[in-house]
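During the reporting period, our protein records have gained a C-alpha cell line. One record among many is quoted in full directly below:
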Amino acid sequence: MDLTNKKVLVVGLARSGLAAINLLHKFNCNITLSERKSESEIEQASYLKSIGVTITDQSQQVFDQHYDLVVKNPGINYRDPKIQLLKSHGIKVITEIELAFLVSKKQHYLAITGTNGKTTTTSLLYEILKKKYHQKALLGGNIGIPLCQLVLDNNLMENEGYYIALEMSNFQLVDCYSFHPEAAVITNLTPDHLDIMKTEEDYYQSKLRVYQNMSGNDLFVVNQDDEILLSHLQQNPVKCQTVNFTISDNKQCDNYVKDNFIYINKQKLLDISKIKVVGKHNWQNIMVACAISKYCNVDDEIIKDVIYNFKGVKHRLEFVREYKGVKYYNDSKGTNTDATIIALKSFDKGVILLVGGYEKGLPMDQLKKHLAPVKKVIGYGYSGKRIVNDLVGQQGLVVETLDQAVKLASSIAVSGDVVLLSPTTSSFDQYSCFEERGEHFIKLVNMLGDTNE
C-alpha cells in the first residue's frame, strides 16, 4: 500500500493511535490527530508536533474535510455519526491492525478472538512459538502492543516470515477488510459490549470477520462446545480447513479430554495433573494454542514443556494470596457475565464473589444459574447494587468501593473459602482499565493483616 504523502486522519490516540502515527510518519503522510483531550492534556503533544502532526479536537468541522485515509482507534465507537459521515463520503476508515497488515511483507498471522479466553490463549501460543522460533515470534494486538508498533520495531515492511500471535477484539475487527490470518479461532461467543454494539447479533458478526479472508490451507479452530458459535458458523461457513476441540470425551473431535489427558490431533499429549492453570476453560485455551502450534510445525516436547510451566496471565483467575486459610483470586479481566461463569466453574464451594463496576447493562440471568459454589455476593461500584439485586436480591451485600468489598469479604470468610474478584463488567466507573482495578485488588489483599488495615 502506497501511503506516501497521503492526507490521513487518526481518530483517537492511546497506544494504537500513537503507533499508527509513527508508522504513517515513515511514509511522510500529512497527519491530523483528532483527540477528545485538549493539546495540553496530551502527554506526547510536543513529540507529535515535532514530527509534523496537526492536533485538533473532535468537532464536526474536522470530519467535514476530505482525507485519503482514516485510522480509527478501536476505542472510538464505530457507530459514531462522524465516523459514519466519513464512510458515507467514500473515505476508507480502518484500524491500525489493517494499516499494519497493508504495509507489511508476508507474515504468519495467528489471530485469537472471542468473548473470553483471548489473552490466556494468545499468551500461551506466543510462549510456545517463542521457544521454537525465538526472535521470529511476536506478541501483540489487543493484548498491549499494537501491531503497528511491532511493524516498526521489527521492520516488518522489509522483513518477512514472523510468527505473530495476535489477540483481536471485536472493535479491532470491525474496520478490518484485507487482514488475512493463516490460523485463527473464535474462542467462544457470549453477549458483550452491548453498551456500544447496536445489537447482540452485531457483536457476533464482528467476531466472524476474523475468518472472512481465510481460504484453502489456512486453519480455523472450532469450539465444538459453543452452540452459539456453531450456529453462526453454519450460517456463515468457513472456507478453509478446520480442526475442532471439546472438553468432553469425544473421539469424533480432533482435540479432546479423556482419562485426565488432553489429546491433540487425536494423539495423547498432555497430562492434566501437570498443568498449573486452573479450570476447564483453560483446557480449551490450551487445546487452541496446541492446535495452532502444531499447524506452525512446533514439536510436541516444546509444547509440553511450555504448557507444564505456564502459570497463567495476570488478572485472569490469578492466584494472589492465601491468608488465614482463605484463597484470594484476581479475575479483574472478568468484564462480562460469561467470564465470571467460567471463573466460578473452577471452584466447588465457599466462594465470596465480588462484582460491580461500570454499568454495561448486561443481564444476569445466565450467571444466576451458576451460583452453586457461591457463599455470598458482594457488590461495589456504580453497578454493584443492580447486579447484586439481579443475582441474589437481599441475600447479597452492597458497598461503595473495592476497598470496602475486600475488607467485608475478609471479615466473613473462613478457612477453606475463596474470595474471587470477577466483576462481570468493565472498570470505568472507578478505574481507567481492568489492569488498574486488578492491581488495586492485589494491593488490598496483600495489605490484609497489616496494622493499618
The radius of gyration is 23 Å. Residues 118-133 form the longest helix (16 residues). The mean pLDDT is 93. The first strand starts at residue 7 and ends at 11.
